[in-house]
Amino acid sequence: MTQQADAVVVGSGLAGLVATYELTKAGRRVIVVDQENRANLGGQAFWSLGGLFLVDTPEQRRLGIRDSAELALQDWMGSAGFDRDDEDFWPRQWARAYVEFAAGEKRQYLHDLGLRITPVVGWAERGGGFADGHGNSVPRFHLTWGTGPEVVRVFAEPVLEAERQGLVEFRFRHRVDEIIVDDGAATGIRGAVLAPDDAERGVASSRDIVGDFEIHADAVIVTTGGIGHNHDLIRANWPVDRLGEPPKTMISGVPAYVDGRMLSITEEAGANLVNRDRMWHYTEGINNWDPIWPDHAIRIIPGPSSLWLDAEGNRLAPPNFPGFDTNSTMKAILATGYDYSWFVLTQSIIEKEFALSGSEQNPDITSKDLKFAAKSRFAKGAPGPVAKFAEHGVDFVVRSNLPDLVAGMNEITRGPKLDLAHVERIISARDAEIENKYSKDAQLMAITNARQYLGDKLVRVAKPHRLLDPEHGPLIAVRLNILTRKTLGGIETDLNSRVMRPDGSAFDGLFAAGEVAGFGGGGVHGYNALEGTFLGGCIFSGRAAGRAVARGSTERG
């Protein structure tokens, strides 16, 4: 077949939209293919909370946060823990470039597209307790006004306008099965045409084949995401040596189409895959009482006050507090031999500290309704979506006293029955530390530290109180499950998002961006993510791919 476009983009998620936007700005003709229908434009990003990792912003400075590119890079490198000479060669360079982007033009780049952010900066993934180790030293989680749909919108609108002008052609329900390689260069794709399916966004669609297709282009850009819904592939790549045996029960934080197919297809074409064992799953997953996709999970984004118990009712050791060190907590939970844990908290804590990840779980911010948001965030009682989970969620137990609470927990346990006397001793010991403003309890010290930050004190961290104080009741327990989410490794790429071959050479005509490329380089996060960096990684790597193809780049990054 003859050349049909300047570039073919595989995947219409955020990274694909960004790459297409950059290509069309340069006047290039683009074909975008996706195995889902048009309703899924924007992919996973649509469902996200819309948090963005930004450094030294006006929002931070107004809240008294002193941040810098140097401090952010120290945090990034301490979290990433890069320790592989070959596989981490490009990720190290991507990390430096991305932090420079986050501290430099990223905010203005997005602002010029029409994206705005909320005034309170969140403090996500607070870390493991060492200045040069994992975690954010200061709050950097900038929440998009409009959440994930708004991040998608600012790139989708110009791409859709380019479609109307004839620069972009979408081919939905086209599943790629092969990258065409001629004389060592990627020249196109071929695959199967899937039967039309009008399923709503996120709903699992059919895989019935009605035909085949072949598309040729000067460049192929792969932007198809990771393996987050493919539990078999997750288990096959699970880092047993670092985290322990993979959980028997996993629930999915991403739709069914996040299947990882293009990773092996790209590898078969000759690409180098690196850091396959690095992944980012959450320990605070709850089953969605109103699911959209199979095994639909929601993550609790917790403040620091809930008491975290393992399956046997033992308190997790520092730094395994809510919102501090995801992988350390994962390892501690799985070391018990069980794949779940418990939050124990009060009504006062759930009202102020529980946020749910996802655009649909934050309708006030997603709809950009200022009055609705003010009423929802400052009114007494838990936010509406949180209250519905407490009422309908299978993982929630709400009782007026501790004996009834523990009895309710034992009704939904997947492991040992909890001993009331044991749980009561742990809670009472914690409560005894509340009488003073200072404490030897590391979690209470962390809460005191958090409340030094105005944003946390106002809207995120409850005033310390005794869990067994009836004035703060009722008592609440939440069974926490392992929620699958992000792939941190993937296709190795240089700083132009060009795919690399196993021998270290560039793969002519083949590019990759977003999660399929480990958000840049094949693993820009290393072993740990600082949160707010997934959307930004899609934007940064998608931009690099689009610009490189647009200028016909052949130089090394």
From TrEMBL:
Q: Cross-referenced PANTHER family, in alphabetical order?
A: 3-KETOSTEROID-DELTA-1-DEHYDROGENASE, KSDD-LIKE STEROID DEHYDROGENASE RV0785
Question: Under what name is this protein listed?
Answer: FAD-dependent oxidoreductase 2 FAD-binding domain-containing protein
Q: A single Pfam family, by name?
A: FAD_binding_2
Coiled-coil positions = none
Please name the GO terms that the record assigns under molecular function.
Answer: steroid dehydrogenase activity, acting on the CH-CH group of donors
Kindly list the organism's lineage. Bacteria, Bacillati, Actinomycetota, Actinomycetes, Mycobacteriales
Known InterPro entries for this protein? Answer: FAD-dep_OxRdtase_2_FAD-bd (IPR003953), FAD/NAD-bd_sf (IPR036188), KsdD_DH (IPR014614), Succ_DH/fumarate_Rdtase_cat_sf (IPR027477)
Give the source's domain of life in one word: Bacteria
Q: Which UniProt keywords apply?
A: Flavoprotein, Oxidoreductase
Outline the extent of the FAD-dependent oxidoreductase 2 FAD-binding domain. 6-535
